[in-house]
Design brief:
Radius of gyration: 55 Å
Structural class: mainly alpha
Shape: rod-shaped
Order of helices and strands: HHHH
Oligomer: single chain
Number of strands: 0
Number of helices: 4
Largest sheet: none
């Protein structure tokens, strides 16, 4: 009887060992499957990460391209605005230039009329209008100097400035003299204005020879 019980116990143990071995084998199999699934999941995650990075880079490239086109459009808009402003400035400059030309022509015509009415002694009749104007201006200025300083050597004054030998110092001296003479020369010019450009006779004025 004891022998039967011993055999029963041994059989039970054998079955238990077989069941344990089967379980261990199944665990190994499932572990292998789990590792395989984990590997596939890892590869899928890596592929997804790479794809996401690629899409991100593509999106950044698209943003950079859009930004470049935006800047180009802004540059073109600014260029168009600059061209418009330049064209407007050109029109304004042209208008000013035409005005200046008109004033210059009017002044030249008035000066020519004045010189035709005046007899400038010591100046050849064939001299240009500019030469006659310069000669008259010099003549008037020297006459004023002579009236203030009796016995002054006008010939020496007509030789021009008395300046230092150094060119740089001479230029500075001339600029200083010109600045000092600026305001007084305007007053003197105003004084001679009616002599240089006689007033236009009134339409109601009678004929002096009448």
């Amino acid at each position: 009887m004891e022998q039967g019980a011993h055999q029963l116990t041994k059989g039970t143990l054998d079955e238990a060992l077989k069941a344990a071995e089967a379980s261990r084998t199944e665990v190994v199999v499932w572990r292998g499957k789990a590792e395989e699934l984990e590997g596939e999941a890892s590869r899928a995650a890596e592929a997804s990460r790479v794809e996401v990075q690629r899409l991100k880079e593509k999106a950044e490239a698209s943003w950079v391209e859009a930004q470049r086109w935006k800047e180009k459009a802004e540059d073109e808009s600014q260029l168009e605005a600059k061209v418009t402003r330049a064209a407007e400035a050109s029109v304004a400059v042209q208008a000013v230039l035409e005005t200046e030309i008109g004033e210059h022509d009017a002044l030249k015509s008035a000066a020519r009329t004045a010189y035709e009415a005046l007899e400038v002694k010591g100046v050849q009749s064939g001299s240009s209008l500019e030469s006659r104007l310069i000669a008259l201006s010099g003549q008037r200025a020297l006459a004023v100097i002579a009236s203030h300083y009796i016995g002054v050597d006008l010939v020496a004054i007509s030789d021009g400035y008395v300046l230092p030998d150094d060119d740089g110092e001479a230029d500075k001296a001339v600029m200083k003299l010109m600045e000092a003479a600026k305001d007084p020369s305007m007053v003197l010019a105003k004084l001679f204005e009616e002599e240089v450009v006689p007033p236009t006779p009134s339409a109601d004025a009678g004929d002096p020879e009448a």
